[in-house]
Amino acid sequence: MTIKKPMLSVQDACDFLLNAVRPITAIERVPTLQANGRVLAQDQASQLDVPPMDNTQMDGYAVRAADCVSGEAVLAVSQRIPAGHVGLPLAAGTVARIFTGALIPQGADAVVMQEQCEADETGSRVTVRTSPQAGEWIRRAGEDIKSGSVILSAGTRLRAQELGLAASVGLADLPVFRKCRVAVFFTGDELTMPGEPLKPGAIYNSNRFMLRGLLEQLGCEVTDLGNVPDTLEATRDALRRAASGHDLIVTSGGVSVGEEDHIKPAVEAEGRLNMWQIALKPGKPLAFGEITCTDQRDAFFIGLPGNPVSSFVTFLLFVRPFILKLQGAVVSPPRRYMVRADFSWAKPDRRNEFLRVRFNDEGGVSLFPNQSSAVLTSTVWGDGLLDNPPGQAIAPGDLVRFIPFNELLA
Ligand code: AMP
Ligand code: MG
User: Fold this and answer.
1) Ligand 1: which of 307, 314, 375, 377 to mutate, most ligand atoms within 8 Å of CB?
2) What is the crossing angle of helices 263-270 and 232-243, to 10°?
């Protein structure tokens, strides 16, 4: 009698992987202009206030509010202060013509926007048609950032807005963890490269393009070893080459336990392996292990299933957080949003399904009609994945858990 091993839940598999990661600790300094997508290695504090001094938010006139209480004060324009220039102290009973970003002159306590003022022909006198509150339209020194405060913490993945923030406090370069080095190869005698004719029985290697794209978006240094024939020797040889100089090896295909699936015995021969059946659809089989290296620490190994949608989904759910942690990033689970299902799913699988859905014009989500793990069209059509618990039927109008692709990509 064979006892069927219970399948691992998605969460347990993810936890296991994240617990196994030994993050990269090597740090390098890179120019802030080249730090996009990198992971910050140390907290960054600001050495200055932002903005550094009080300045105007508007084109208009810097005034003493007390001079304008009548609501139609006529005042002399005593100076002109463009951004980047420092004015003189403001004489009582006068105003300063001032432009967005320029420093507030000493003595002024408000700015009146030019739309509420009327200048004479020469611009030497102006009627202020409002009575401003003290402080109006002034950006205060330190309003955004106080000197000494931490603006970015270690483990942050640097996006455009983090780079802007770093630059705003004058940081010309940043300490980041070195990039993670990933080797990737693809098993399957049927795989053909686009550009070559398709022989009977062959298919194009779509996973190569998809997985490389995903790895590159995560900021990995990718070594692509290409297609590997379905033999034990070729697979072992590819594993050895992939392990050298890399933190992680990712493969597609050959993770089932059929006669043509060589990943399991090859990884067992070259290192250590956990073969998992995950309660996940698409993407039930997943291989995780390490390949022994003599000249460096052992390389991690993750073997994804060959079906393209299974490869895609297992990458997003498992490889992505693994790589983020490897790179030193703080990893948080992708956000799930409750949305309305505008379809019925009457025959749920006993596994945790990740259905390809997209938003419709009625504010709910629609289901891609073909949820086969071989149909990549669904990933292009969809806006994200519907995370459906095992055995959960869905009726139109039900609230379901939706993970947008932009939570999982990049
Ligand atoms: P396997 O996991 O090797 O049993 O493959 C499962 C299915 O995925 C088979 O139909 C393969 O032809 C297909 N497949 C495997 N590798 C790839 C790939 N790199 N690109 C596209 N399809 C693939
Ligand atoms: Mg295969």
Assistant:
1) 307
2) 50
